[in-house]
Amino acid sequence: MRLFGVLAAMTAFTFSLPALAETTPPVALAIHGGAGTIDPEKMSDEKRQAIAAKLDEALTSGYRLLQNGGSALDAVEAAVRVLEDSPLFNAGVGAVYTWEEGHELDASIMDGATLEAGAVAGVRTVRNPISLARKVMTDSPHVMLAGEGAEAFARSQGVEMVPNSHFDTESRLKSLKEAKEKILAREGVSHQAAVESLESEFKMGTVGAVALDSTGTLAAATSTGGMTAKRWGRVGDSPVIGAGTYADDAVCAISATGHGEYFIRYNVAADICARAKYQGILLAEAADEVILKRLKQAGGTGGVITLDPEGRVAMPFNTEGMYRASIDAQGNKQIAIWQSVIEP
Amino acid sequence: MRLFGVLAAMTAFTFSLPALAETTPPVALAIHGGAGTIDPEKMSDEKRQAIAAKLDEALTSGYRLLQNGGSALDAVEAAVRVLEDSPLFNAGVGAVYTWEEGHELDASIMDGATLEAGAVAGVRTVRNPISLARKVMTDSPHVMLAGEGAEAFARSQGVEMVPNSHFDTESRLKSLKEAKEKILAREGVSHQAAVESLESEFKMGTVGAVALDSTGTLAAATSTGGMTAKRWGRVGDSPVIGAGTYADDAVCAISATGHGEYFIRYNVAADICARAKYQGILLAEAADEVILKRLKQAGGTGGVITLDPEGRVAMPFNTEGMYRASIDAQGNKQIAIWQSVIEP
Asked: Checking CA distances to A234, which of A24, A243, A257, B162 falls within 20 to 30 Å?
């Protein structure tokens, strides 16, 4: 584990931005690019730097909006769009492949001020699913749309459409082939058992953001390509309000990443909020309880990014790593991949 | 309001079954057939009696299993299947129509012992969506399947398939035409605003069941045709674990019915469980807080059926009526439609 600390030091850093005037309402932003088995020894310096740079770009794009008085919703949408448009993460371009070698994208967004929310599941030709989720929230009478219907809604809203191949990447196709080979090699066991025996790296990968704006509003957003080799129109936790995404100005903004089935069953995002709200504990403490204890004991791998109404950031995960970055209400900035965050 | 009490007396009754031996572990079951604007003056005696008889039949089919040592999962599935196969309720046969004059069915089921769950959204040709949801739980590596993919999974499992017209009923078609007429008549307002102005009767209708078996396991199940005139692959709360359905042996089994968008945003089923768990209050009290206060204040109409680990039943709703029936751990049986439950 010492190795991780040393390697982490190479990409994880924190520093303080110039002290803010006391009269400026605090703003804060945290983002993630997925949790999982991220082996530091297998990651090239180039890839590590590319990931850190893209996280920084996404963080900056959202944070600038917040600094200029923009809304938490605008900030999380902007940050997630940057990550969706990058092939480095499992969302938008770079989304994993389904069993049939296509891409089915899920996303959701929630406004902590109104508890309004929007979500889409299984969309194939929408360039930025997070923006479609926001349209569902603001311009449809519904919260969640799926499949062909969601695409028809997207067209009616003038959202940017792309061919499904827009999301293709060589590395994800290779992962699909590996996953299918492993599943099909397990003769004599059910598809279910074969999938369950797959390494967790095939089951994860998501991007997300949580923000606090200068009006005190919290928002959360999550987007994903789901699980490698998923079949049968599988919907993960990312578009499930309460599982992958939740926001409530009274207590929390949360975006999750991990083995989605567990996050749905354990109602992870909302359960963390509920613990903070009803037990009167800090959101960070509630997040640790759920991610590092309850979910871990159940075998559920992944993590969350959380932001409380005071702009405090916590980003616990029970996997080897989680791509993440944040600037809290005090202006402390952090970009990290592995467990240890080393002070500069 | 006195009128309701009088009319309620005609269909709502409670009585005690023969006292159970102290050594028999308690079992309990509650079911619902939807909440909404149910005008007692507009309901014929025949319809009232037919509804009461079908609720009784569903209740009995599940309760018999429990009495014979059957599992809570078997009991909720059996009860919901009876309601799905009846044209009286908005699930299975009798499901409302989509904008395009078809049916898209949603369902979910959850095992409180393991927190395992299964859900399907937008299925069109599966006779009993609740049984497919159970197959998703037991025989797929996933929790939630949607659309065409869910149908393909159904075929691979040998689940009974029917043409979409199997779910047709004259009265629901009439409701669709009314709803579309009202929406299209509202020129100059958005589809969203027009739908939001629709009477709540068009937005509700669900069936569900919660059970406690002799091993102390709780289970919950919910099934629906969704909202009349729904479009764009709309998914309501029924297949969303945490919103329409939740079960956890430690504290609760819950099935919800109402304006689904609110139930998703307020994470209703899981929030009731969380309040009971973290605030240490009775489940019934938590359900009242959410349904009669928080949700009602937000404008969210509907109700829930709840069962706690001691087999206590609570079934609060903030609408005029909710079709419901239950037998609690003491053997007290109840079948009711409106607010008042009159002692015999």
From this structure: B162
Residues of B assigned a catalytic role: 206
Tell me the residue range of the domain where A305 lies: 13-336
The set of residues, in sequence order, having a beta carbon less than 8 Å from that of B268 and lying 6+ positions away, is B237, B243, B244, B254, B256, B262, B290, B291, B295, B300, B304
Q: Is A286 on the interface with B (CB under 8 A)?
A: no
Task: Establish if A118 belongs to a structural domain.
Answer: yes
**Interface touch A274/B275, C-beta < 8 Å:** yes
Q: What is the CATH number of the domain that holds A297?
A: 3.60.20.30
Positions of A annotated as catalytic residues are 206
Counting the structural domains of chain B, the total is 1
Q: Do B115 and A150 touch (CB under 8 A)?
A: no
Answer whether A192 sits within 8 Å of B242, measured CB to CB.
no
Give how far A252 is from chain B: nearest CA, Å.
14
Q: Is residue B329 part of a domain?
A: yes
Q: Is A116 exposed, middle or buried (0-12, 13-18, 19+ CB in 10 A)?
A: middle
- In tens digits, chain A (344 residues) has pLDDT values of 333 333 443 455 555 555 554 557 899 999 999 998 778 888 889 999 999 999 999 999 999 999 999 999 999 999 999 999 999 999 999 999 999 999 999 999 999 999 999 999 999 999 999 999 999 999 999 999 999 999 999 999 999 999 999 999 999 999 999 999 988 888 677 777 877 777 777 777 899 999 999 999 999 999 999 999 999 999 999 999 999 999 999 999 999 999 999 999 999 999 999 999 999 999 999 999 999 999 999 999 999 999 999 999 999 999 999 999 999 999 999 999 998 653 33
How is residue A101 annotated by DSSP? Answer: S
Would you say A34 and A302 are in contact if contact means Cβ atoms under 8 Å apart? no
A206 in a structural domain: yes
Whether B7 and B338 have beta carbons less than 8 Å apart is answered as: yes
- Supply the DSSP string of A54-97, one letter for each residue: HHHHHHHHHHHHHHTT--HHHHHHHHHHHHHTSTTSSSSTTPPP
Full-model pTM:
0.93
CB contact under 8 A, B234 and A145: yes
Token pair 């109104």 is found at A114
Is B216 near chain A, with CB under 8 Å?
no
